[in-house]
Amino acid sequence: MRKRDIFLIALAVLLGVGLAAHLLLRSTAETGSWGLSFRQDGTPPVGPASASQLQKLDAAYLGNPEEKVLYLTFDAGYENGSTAKILDTLKKHNAPAVFFLVGNYIEKNVDLVKRMAAEGHTVGNHTMHHYDMSRISDPEAFRRELEDLETLYREKIGGEMSKFYRPPQGIYSTENLKTAQRLGYKTVFWSLAYVDWKNDAQPTKEQAFAKLLPRVHNGAVILLHSTSQTNAAILDELLTKYEEMGYRFAPITELFANNAG
Q1: 121, 126, 217, 225: which is the annotated catalytic residue?
Q2: Pairing between strand 220-225 and 69-76?
Q3: Could you say which of 58, 75, 196, 217 is catalytic?
Protein backbone atom coordinates (compact mmCIF):
# COMPACT_ATOMS: atom_id res chain seq x y z
CA MET A 1 0.00 0.00 0.00
CA ARG A 2 1.34 3.39 -0.95
CA LYS A 3 2.21 5.93 1.72
CA ARG A 4 -0.39 8.32 0.30
CA ASP A 5 -3.14 5.68 0.73
CA ILE A 6 -2.03 4.95 4.28
CA PHE A 7 -2.11 8.67 5.05
CA LEU A 8 -5.64 9.06 3.64
CA ILE A 9 -6.94 6.07 5.61
CA ALA A 10 -5.39 7.39 8.81
CA LEU A 11 -6.86 10.83 8.17
CA ALA A 12 -10.31 9.34 7.59
CA VAL A 13 -10.11 7.39 10.84
CA LEU A 14 -9.05 10.51 12.77
CA LEU A 15 -11.85 12.55 11.22
CA GLY A 16 -14.34 9.82 12.07
CA VAL A 17 -13.21 9.70 15.68
CA GLY A 18 -13.29 13.47 15.87
CA LEU A 19 -16.79 13.62 14.44
CA ALA A 20 -18.02 10.96 16.85
CA ALA A 21 -16.50 12.85 19.78
CA HIS A 22 -18.07 16.08 18.57
CA LEU A 23 -21.50 14.49 18.30
CA LEU A 24 -21.15 12.91 21.74
CA LEU A 25 -20.17 16.22 23.31
CA ARG A 26 -22.96 17.99 21.47
CA SER A 27 -25.49 15.43 22.70
CA THR A 28 -24.20 15.71 26.27
CA ALA A 29 -24.34 19.50 26.15
CA GLU A 30 -27.88 19.58 24.79
CA THR A 31 -29.40 16.96 27.08
CA GLY A 32 -29.25 17.00 30.83
CA SER A 33 -30.97 16.98 34.19
CA TRP A 34 -31.63 20.32 35.85
CA GLY A 35 -29.25 20.76 38.77
CA LEU A 36 -28.00 23.72 40.75
CA SER A 37 -24.70 24.88 42.23
CA PHE A 38 -25.09 27.12 45.28
CA ARG A 39 -22.02 29.30 45.70
CA GLN A 40 -23.23 31.48 48.57
CA ASP A 41 -26.34 31.50 50.76
CA GLY A 42 -28.82 34.18 49.85
CA THR A 43 -27.64 34.52 46.26
CA PRO A 44 -28.98 32.82 43.11
CA PRO A 45 -27.40 29.47 42.25
CA VAL A 46 -25.75 28.63 38.95
CA GLY A 47 -27.79 26.34 36.70
CA PRO A 48 -26.75 24.09 33.79
CA ALA A 49 -27.90 26.84 31.42
CA SER A 50 -27.82 30.58 31.92
CA ALA A 51 -30.90 32.76 32.18
CA SER A 52 -30.08 34.35 28.81
CA GLN A 53 -29.69 30.96 27.11
CA LEU A 54 -33.02 29.81 28.49
CA GLN A 55 -34.74 33.05 27.55
CA LYS A 56 -34.16 32.30 23.86
CA LEU A 57 -36.18 29.11 24.35
CA ASP A 58 -38.99 30.75 26.36
CA ALA A 59 -37.66 29.04 29.49
CA ALA A 60 -36.59 30.37 32.88
CA TYR A 61 -35.34 29.24 36.26
CA LEU A 62 -34.87 32.59 37.99
CA GLY A 63 -36.63 35.91 38.24
CA ASN A 64 -35.19 39.38 38.74
CA PRO A 65 -32.21 39.02 41.13
CA GLU A 66 -32.67 42.65 42.14
CA GLU A 67 -36.26 42.21 43.35
CA LYS A 68 -37.47 40.53 46.56
CA VAL A 69 -40.02 38.33 44.84
CA LEU A 70 -40.63 34.58 45.02
CA TYR A 71 -42.44 32.21 42.67
CA LEU A 72 -44.02 29.15 44.30
CA THR A 73 -44.33 25.98 42.22
CA PHE A 74 -45.55 22.51 43.19
CA ASP A 75 -45.05 19.25 41.29
CA ALA A 76 -47.78 16.66 41.75
CA GLY A 77 -47.64 13.14 40.37
CA TYR A 78 -50.30 11.77 42.71
CA GLU A 79 -52.37 12.79 45.74
CA ASN A 80 -51.76 11.67 49.31
CA GLY A 81 -53.87 14.10 51.30
CA SER A 82 -51.48 17.05 51.62
CA THR A 83 -52.72 19.34 48.85
CA ALA A 84 -55.86 20.65 50.56
CA LYS A 85 -53.82 21.92 53.50
CA ILE A 86 -51.30 23.48 51.11
CA LEU A 87 -54.13 25.27 49.32
CA ASP A 88 -55.50 26.50 52.66
CA THR A 89 -52.10 28.00 53.49
CA LEU A 90 -51.67 29.62 50.09
CA LYS A 91 -55.10 31.20 50.48
CA LYS A 92 -54.22 32.51 53.94
CA HIS A 93 -51.12 34.23 52.58
CA ASN A 94 -52.75 35.31 49.32
CA ALA A 95 -49.86 33.55 47.59
CA PRO A 96 -50.32 32.41 43.97
CA ALA A 97 -48.67 29.17 42.92
CA VAL A 98 -48.24 26.87 39.94
CA PHE A 99 -49.23 23.22 40.24
CA PHE A 100 -47.57 21.10 37.58
CA LEU A 101 -49.85 18.09 37.12
CA VAL A 102 -49.79 14.80 35.21
CA GLY A 103 -52.69 12.97 33.61
CA ASN A 104 -53.26 10.51 36.44
CA TYR A 105 -53.57 13.36 38.93
CA ILE A 106 -56.20 15.23 36.93
CA GLU A 107 -58.16 12.01 36.34
CA LYS A 108 -58.37 11.16 40.05
CA ASN A 109 -58.53 14.60 41.71
CA VAL A 110 -60.99 16.69 39.72
CA ASP A 111 -62.30 18.61 42.73
CA LEU A 112 -58.81 19.56 43.92
CA VAL A 113 -57.76 20.71 40.46
CA LYS A 114 -60.94 22.76 40.12
CA ARG A 115 -60.15 24.32 43.49
CA MET A 116 -56.63 25.23 42.32
CA ALA A 117 -58.04 27.04 39.31
CA ALA A 118 -60.90 28.66 41.23
CA GLU A 119 -58.52 30.08 43.85
CA GLY A 120 -56.36 31.75 41.23
CA HIS A 121 -53.51 29.28 40.93
CA THR A 122 -51.98 28.21 37.64
CA VAL A 123 -52.28 24.59 36.54
CA GLY A 124 -49.20 23.74 34.49
CA ASN A 125 -48.32 20.86 32.20
CA HIS A 126 -46.13 18.12 33.70
CA THR A 127 -46.96 15.83 30.72
CA MET A 128 -49.57 13.11 30.40
CA HIS A 129 -47.43 10.19 31.63
CA HIS A 130 -44.37 11.72 33.38
CA TYR A 131 -41.89 10.14 30.96
CA ASP A 132 -38.25 11.11 30.59
CA MET A 133 -39.04 13.54 27.78
CA SER A 134 -35.41 13.79 26.64
CA ARG A 135 -35.75 10.23 25.31
CA ILE A 136 -38.64 11.23 23.05
CA SER A 137 -36.96 12.28 19.82
CA ASP A 138 -40.13 12.34 17.74
CA PRO A 139 -41.67 15.85 17.94
CA GLU A 140 -45.12 14.37 17.30
CA ALA A 141 -44.84 12.04 20.30
CA PHE A 142 -43.61 14.93 22.42
CA ARG A 143 -46.53 17.06 21.26
CA ARG A 144 -49.01 14.33 22.21
CA GLU A 145 -47.67 14.19 25.76
CA LEU A 146 -48.51 17.86 26.24
CA GLU A 147 -51.65 18.13 24.14
CA ASP A 148 -53.27 14.96 25.53
CA LEU A 149 -53.01 16.55 28.97
CA GLU A 150 -54.56 19.76 27.62
CA THR A 151 -57.48 17.72 26.26
CA LEU A 152 -57.93 15.89 29.57
CA TYR A 153 -57.91 19.18 31.46
CA ARG A 154 -60.51 20.62 29.09
CA GLU A 155 -62.76 17.59 29.52
CA LYS A 156 -62.42 17.14 33.29
CA ILE A 157 -61.90 20.69 34.58
CA GLY A 158 -63.21 22.93 31.82
CA GLY A 159 -61.43 25.79 30.11
CA GLU A 160 -57.95 25.82 28.69
CA MET A 161 -54.79 24.75 30.48
CA SER A 162 -52.14 27.43 30.93
CA LYS A 163 -49.13 27.12 28.64
CA PHE A 164 -46.47 26.48 31.27
CA TYR A 165 -44.43 23.29 31.10
CA ARG A 166 -42.08 21.57 33.52
CA PRO A 167 -40.04 18.59 32.29
CA PRO A 168 -40.55 15.52 34.51
CA GLN A 169 -37.60 15.08 36.89
CA GLY A 170 -36.08 18.19 35.33
CA ILE A 171 -34.67 16.08 32.49
CA TYR A 172 -34.61 18.01 29.25
CA SER A 173 -32.97 18.45 25.87
CA THR A 174 -32.58 21.53 23.74
CA GLU A 175 -34.83 19.98 21.10
CA ASN A 176 -37.50 19.33 23.75
CA LEU A 177 -37.43 22.97 24.78
CA LYS A 178 -37.63 24.09 21.16
CA THR A 179 -40.63 21.83 20.57
CA ALA A 180 -42.37 23.12 23.69
CA GLN A 181 -41.67 26.65 22.49
CA ARG A 182 -43.20 25.90 19.09
CA LEU A 183 -46.30 24.60 20.89
CA GLY A 184 -46.60 27.96 22.66
CA TYR A 185 -45.24 26.77 26.03
CA LYS A 186 -42.94 28.48 28.47
CA THR A 187 -40.70 26.04 30.33
CA VAL A 188 -40.30 26.56 34.08
CA PHE A 189 -37.24 25.19 35.87
CA TRP A 190 -36.33 26.25 39.44
CA SER A 191 -33.64 27.90 41.52
CA LEU A 192 -34.49 26.47 44.95
CA ALA A 193 -35.59 22.97 45.97
CA TYR A 194 -34.80 20.25 48.49
CA VAL A 195 -35.29 16.51 48.88
CA ASP A 196 -38.98 16.49 49.85
CA TRP A 197 -40.39 13.77 47.54
CA LYS A 198 -39.44 10.60 49.46
CA ASN A 199 -42.59 9.66 51.34
CA ASP A 200 -40.83 7.03 53.43
CA ALA A 201 -38.05 9.46 54.42
CA GLN A 202 -39.69 12.83 54.91
CA PRO A 203 -37.39 15.60 56.15
CA THR A 204 -37.98 17.14 59.55
CA LYS A 205 -39.07 20.74 59.88
CA GLU A 206 -35.53 21.65 60.89
CA GLN A 207 -34.02 19.91 57.87
CA ALA A 208 -36.46 21.63 55.54
CA PHE A 209 -35.81 25.08 56.99
CA ALA A 210 -32.05 24.48 56.85
CA LYS A 211 -32.35 24.30 53.04
CA LEU A 212 -35.25 26.62 52.28
CA LEU A 213 -34.35 29.61 54.45
CA PRO A 214 -30.59 30.26 54.03
CA ARG A 215 -30.69 29.56 50.29
CA VAL A 216 -33.69 31.72 49.44
CA HIS A 217 -32.79 34.60 47.13
CA ASN A 218 -34.31 37.39 45.08
CA GLY A 219 -36.30 36.08 42.14
CA ALA A 220 -36.28 32.49 43.41
CA VAL A 221 -38.44 29.95 41.62
CA ILE A 222 -39.15 27.49 44.43
CA LEU A 223 -39.93 23.85 43.65
CA LEU A 224 -41.87 21.91 46.28
CA HIS A 225 -43.80 18.66 46.01
CA SER A 226 -47.41 18.67 47.12
CA THR A 227 -47.05 15.03 48.13
CA SER A 228 -44.77 16.08 51.01
CA GLN A 229 -46.39 15.92 54.43
CA THR A 230 -43.53 18.06 55.71
CA ASN A 231 -44.35 20.78 53.19
CA ALA A 232 -48.01 20.76 54.22
CA ALA A 233 -47.01 21.04 57.89
CA ILE A 234 -44.41 23.81 57.56
CA LEU A 235 -45.77 25.90 54.68
CA ASP A 236 -47.61 28.45 56.83
CA GLU A 237 -44.53 29.11 58.96
CA LEU A 238 -42.24 29.06 55.92
CA LEU A 239 -44.28 31.65 54.02
CA THR A 240 -44.51 33.78 57.17
CA LYS A 241 -40.73 33.72 57.50
CA TYR A 242 -40.32 34.68 53.83
CA GLU A 243 -42.72 37.59 54.34
CA GLU A 244 -40.77 38.71 57.42
CA MET A 245 -37.64 38.70 55.24
CA GLY A 246 -39.37 41.19 52.94
CA TYR A 247 -40.39 38.84 50.10
CA ARG A 248 -43.66 38.86 48.20
CA PHE A 249 -45.20 36.05 46.17
CA ALA A 250 -45.91 36.58 42.48
CA PRO A 251 -47.70 34.61 39.75
CA ILE A 252 -45.58 32.80 37.20
CA THR A 253 -46.80 35.13 34.45
CA GLU A 254 -44.82 37.91 36.14
CA LEU A 255 -41.64 35.84 35.92
CA PHE A 256 -41.85 35.73 32.15
CA ALA A 257 -43.05 39.31 31.83
CA ASN A 258 -39.90 40.41 33.66
CA ASN A 259 -37.69 38.08 31.60
CA ALA A 260 -39.12 39.34 28.34
CA GLY A 261 -37.00 42.44 28.45
Answers
A1: 225
A2: parallel
A3: 75
